[in-house]
Amino acid sequence: MAYLLYSITFLTIITGTLLFLTRARWLPHVQATIVNINNRIEDRRFPGSSYLYSRLPSTFAEDAEAGLSSSNFDLTGNVEGGDSRAGLDAAAKREILRIMQRRRMKFDEARRVYMEQRFQANGIGADGRPRDPKFVSFS
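Predicted structure:
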């Protein structure tokens, strides 16, 4: 019986050590899988919620009323100045509103998450530097 206990302990220590030493290789994949699972769970939280229609704001005033404004990203200057443009980018608005609803975040946090997703999709690190291995920077 003692041999079984020692064998299991030894195997656990060896496995833990190997996982620790190779964590840079497998950890991003596990984290991405967890994020995908969480997104699927959030999508199924409200049955039929993907079919609900909500009209996107089309002016800066409507953007501010929809919560797409904050002290860091202030639209009052555009509204008070009578800016006649169509407002913020429709695709970005849709995605930011979706992030705000799903993750229950405020506008600034949702905008940060949206930009990090855009950076990641375009091969840019969270710090703003390209992930290209051939990238050379002079400072």
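Summary: Residues 45 and 129 are 36 Å apart (CA to CA).
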